[in-house]
Write a structure and sequence with these properties.
single chain; 531 residues; alpha/beta; seven-stranded parallel β-sheet; six-stranded parallel β-sheet; glycosyltransferase; UDP_glycos_trans_CS; EC 2.4.1.17; UDP_glucos_trans; glucuronosyltransferase activity
Length: 531
Amino acid sequence: MDRLFLLSLLASTLSAYKIVVFAPDISSSQIIWNTRVSEKLAEAGHDVTMVRMKFFNKNSSEVVIDPRVNIWDFHMADPDQDYEQMQRKHAELIYQDRPIWSGEARKAMNLWMGFMRNACENLLLQKDLLQQLSEARFDLAFTHMYEYCAIGLIHHAKIPTWIWLNSGQLMDNVADTIGVPKPPSYVPPMMSDSKDEMTFFQRTKSFLGHGLMPLLYPHIVTWPETEIFRKHIDPDFPYLGDLASQCPLVMVNSNELYDIPKPTLHKVINIGGLGMKFENAKPLTGKFKEVVDKAEDVMLFSFGSVANITMMPFEWKMAFMKAFERFPQYQFIARYDGRDLDTVCPPNVFLGKWIPQADLLQHPKTRAFITHGGYNSLQEAINAAKPVVTVPLFGDQHRNGRLAEKHGFGYYLPKTAITEETVVEAIEEILKDKYTTAVKRMHQMVKKKPVQPEELFLRWTEFLAEFKELPNLVPYGTKLGFVQYHNLDILAVLAAIVLLVLTVIYAILKMLFRFGRWILRKISPEKIKKQ
């Protein structure tokens, strides 16, 4: 027996891989997602290190992490970085109705990307961290999709293979880079307020958005970060876009069952819901247990960890409070860390700086969830089989809200339409049986999906770690230029041929017309003489 145990232990040790996860420490949700990934790998027996990439001067997200996961902190922010200013600008922007091409939006984006570029450069100046990364001799790396700095680190550290990872759907810039087709007629940009069924105006925006992204993104992100590596590492450092295009595998926290049906590649693995367990709510404790026990029914109200809800316009806050007051039979539990609502908060509204969102959603008394539409919140609602009212603020939240609406378990409330009456209308609508029926069906489909995300995640990770490269999954389209990819050269030749044919036909007709006129002139005088 001891011999068998030692043999099995030796076999598991030999099959374990040394894996690093580059986690962007930009929000609690990002750290939670990367912690799930790291812990799943550690549970499978792998030697896992999570690198928390601290892009900003802010307090780190407090997340309990399995002690089997090693933690490295990479401090990358400028000492004089004004993170609070960026947060204020972000909050001001998301609670307004500004298009992404507006001056304010572009300023906020430039500020964000400037912070990320400076952080990347600051990291490359810390030679001890680069040496630590190289000497660790990792077998495989995971990295995020927000910028390309970690892709350069993977190449510099000579990590033999890697996986591109996202906490949400496949990002448009990544789809462009790896060669995923995006027909603008029914696949809207990730940041757009559209479903797959679009109006003429929406299709126009989709066409322009998809057309501009592959032209603008390299100039905003990829080339500037490449130049940083060429400045501090090697003048001949490869273009980061070329390294990214040959990525062996891409994993996204999405699911075919509730995403938009669209073209994809074999190398894109959907692991939506990874680490979320069904019917696994922890018992409520303290004030939350007391509030829920007294309630007949419960509704949740939360805008996540990124959107600072205290900076919401006061008229919006009052619209929600007055609307909630009109449903005295429901206990509303809201995540809110301000004090300005203490005197106007209705008796059926409980405000908490933090709420156990997943546990409350899975409680049998909870009827619905009012959310900003973050992908993690949407998945937790599906996991708990609770319908949602989405009030999207920024980013992919608009599309997430439309997804819930498309599948029948969500009501979409535009932020520009928030009033007491529209909030009341949204609550009355979401309490109808059809929404609960739809989300329960989606819940069962996700639960009974033939292959669960944990299995896909581990099997593909270990498969890649063994074979290192998967060039047979890289489409040749990544090597084509814009003209070739869209067959513009063929269209130009065909157009030239058509034009040539039309020109020849025109010339022949013109010649026949002139010949006919000449014949008529010859015949006419002879007829006159005979007469």
